[in-house]
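Q: What structure does this chain adopt?
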Amino acid sequence: MTEQTTPVDDTRPAEDTTSAFVPQPRSEPLPPAATEPATTEPAAPGFVVPPPPVAPPLVGEPQDPPVKVKKDRRVLRAVLRWTAATVVFAAVGASAAYGITRMERTDVPGLATEADGRWDYPAITKPPLPSGSPGPFAGADKSGVHSADLRALLLPAPKGAKADASLRGDDGWLSSKAFLSQYAEKVDRETVGQMLTDYAVRHIAARGWTTPDGTRTRIYLLQFDTAAVAEELASTKLANYGGAQYALTGAATTERDEHFPAASEIDDITRFAYTESKPYGPEQVREAYLSAGDTIALVVQSHKGTAPAVPFQQTVVLQSQLLD
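A:
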């Protein structure tokens, strides 16, 4: 007898089987389906049909590689390599830092080495003090009085420089008129000249030179009776934070030298460093006032076009050390 089949009505709503069968996640990929489908007994009402057993892979049958495991191992190896590299770089960096701290300044390339334009000054030594006289900032009181000869406190010229004979003065002492001639305006020369009289300047010593590159340097030392007098004149009359009070010849306006290294400051020396504001004109002028106890120093450098910063900073710092 032939069995008749009843056509299936596709319009019926699908039965909700979520309560009867919950798919279980598999931890590894399924193998290829067997040639003969597995048969299962009908499930009793209310029971979950367990998944059919996974057939073992056939011998010699290619299998998908465990991609996830290999990826995890590659990531782990990459992390280990980067960790090792970081440790090596840290060790090398620490060694380099230690090496630099143990090197002389001139041994470190790019760190103000002698090739950066510094001049070759002779060995700088302070002049001897009279017997029983302390240094200007020695002892508890730190009176700031320089007992050494003021002329001996002038910075010597660097190697190869030509001395400026106009600053030698009479037996090494410069007149007030010669000092005032560096100021550009007549009214400024008169004003500063009156200040020197009012504050009772004792001595003026000067030295100047011109280096082979054409840079001209002038250094003036003005000595007063006390450190308080010199400090007041320098800080409130001749210099201020933004620029010099009175223009020198060739420098109509000046501004604070923001690039002068702060690390070069000396505790007992007050420094006011300026550079000529743009436009420069035929040459650029750099200048600095130093207040060092009973003495005021004025360092001036000028050069056609642009005045190099390094020799100016070097000259100012060395002169400060002599006055300390």
